[in-house]
Amino acid sequence: MGSTVHHGVEGVGRRDLIKRSAALGLVAAPGMGLLSACASGGGDGQDKAKAGKKTAKNPLGVNDTAGMEFVLFDGGFGKEYAEDAVKVYEKDFPKAKVKFAATQKIQSTLQPRFNQGNPPDLIDNSGAEQMDMGVLVGKNQLADLTPLLDAPSYDDPAKKVRDTLRPGIVEMGQFDGKPVWILYYAYTVYGVWYSQKALDSLDAEYPQTWDQMLAVCEKAKKKGMAGWTYAGKYPYYIPFSLYPMIGKVGGREVLDAIDNLEPNAWKHPAVKACFEAYYELYKKGYVLKGTPGLDHIQSQTAWAKGEALFIPNGSWVENESANVIPADFDLAVSAPTGIDSSDKLPFGTIWASGGEPFIVPAKAKNAEGGMEQLRIMLSEASSKNFTAKVKSLTAYNGGTSGISLTPGLKSGVAALDKAGSNVVNPRLQDWYVQLQKEKIGVAGLGEMMAGRLTPAEAVKKIQGFADEAAKDTSIKHYKHQ
């Protein structure tokens, strides 16, 4: 996310509710765009630049004299990192003229150009005015980025670009089948965030089983601190720790079935166990009083002030709450606590995924140039530059050595290292935004955590919402491949 609003996922100010990434390792989220009628197929398109000669240094065959146009979303990550990457492109192709622009009005600025058939060569499609990815893909407006992914990486010709990326990045850019339409450049770590100093004051370690979680919350309660708080007005934040817990307890296939809107997916025993565990926090009085009425900023502020020990969130929280997190807070993130040793996946299983979506239009004049600019941005040097300047990880799997990491970012990197291959990436928030936020989040989980629904009632209600979405012919349905 890039901003701080509730809508997006990119920089510091927009948060498409579910995905913000303001900056920390954070990354942004894919954001679900507003643009429902964007991109009609119109326009005859512009003359394509003639292909250049493919060489070891120019594996995509960029025409070294063709112009390249790059439009960036000007959000929480700023534009300096992109300007620095453009300088590398200009150095590599000194005869090419690069046109770079940054704007917050992506849709209103670029939708007419898509309709006219003369879009830029590379776009950071992010922010409150993000163009709807499903519409763009459905109307064949985007170029398949497979040639970029299969090209040699910028740093090591023996490695393909796809082999240098973090888990889930390639899959996130796919909708149906193998083509990859989007390259998410930033990377967000979701989980349970807390103050290591506060945990140490309780003489406790981060709990790995639910019995341990309840014991830690009881210790906190005796010291006048709530165990948990969350964005009560936006309870779709709860899944940032709840979904990976479900995956840990029942296995990835449970999350995949939920994403696929399969019948009875929400009735799986792992879902029931995790709902009952979270409900226990409410029943035992371990949730900060008044939490259902708090928004994301209010809950984060109460947590930062030590009123609650744990909060489910994404790595943007470090940047977003920087003005209220004490200097000695020692911010940390952990993968979610599980139920017990019978869980299918090990402790450390975490949700992490990409944000800040970059696209190359199908009718771009110099699509090879747009992809080459992305190849440069996915180099170690460009990735390090981004991380150092905006406190966020990138899709490049590395790029943190030699950089002074903030506490939250450092903890996020450690959590990813611990997770290894046990990284899950639920897709409901990308594929079915209204279902995820308003129905599962607000009407389901929000009501349960406020004590107005039992876990069994919440499961039944949410399964009903999922069944409705599965039968709704007005929306496009997706499935894990």
Give a summary of the structure in a few sentences.
The chain has 481 residues and is of the alpha/beta class.
Folded structure, characterized:
- This protein is an alpha/beta fold and 481 residues long.
- It has two domains: 68-180 and 360-378, D-Maltodextrin-Binding Protein, domain 2 (3-Layer(aba) Sandwich); 189-352 and 424-471, D-Maltodextrin-Binding Protein, domain 2, CATH 3.40.190.10.
- Helices cover 37% and strands 12% of the residues.
- Strands 1, 2, 3, 4, 5, 6, 7, 8, 9 and 10 form a ten-stranded mixed beta sheet that branches.
- Helix 8 (239-250) crosses helix 9 (252-259) and helix 10 crosses helix 18 (455-471).
- The longest helix has 17 residues, at 433-449.
- It starts with 67 loop residues before the first strand and ends in a 10-residue tail after the last helix.
Fill in the keyword field for this structure.
ten-stranded mixed beta sheet; D-Maltodextrin-Binding Protein, domain 2; 481 residues; signal; Bact_solute-bd_prot1; 2 domains; 10 strands; SBP; alpha/beta; disordered N terminus; globular
What spatial form do the alpha-carbon principal axes imply?
globular
Radius of gyration: 22 Å
Cα-to-Cα separation, first versus last residue: 26 Å
Largest sheet: 10 strands, mixed
What's the SSE pattern? EHEHEHHHEHHEHHHHEHEEHHEHEHHH
Could you say how many structural domains there are in total?
2
Low-confidence stretches: 1-42
CATH fold-level assignment of the largest domain: D-Maltodextrin-Binding Protein, domain 2
What portion of the residues fall into strands of 2 or more residues? 5-15%
Mean pLDDT: 89
Please identify the oligomeric state. Answer: single chain
Total number of β-strand segments?
10
Query: What share of the residues lie within helices?
Result: 25-40%
Number of helices: 18
- CATH H level, superfamily name of the largest domain: Periplasmic binding protein-like II
Write the CATH architecture name of the largest domain: 3-Layer(aba) Sandwich
CATH class of the largest domain: Alpha Beta
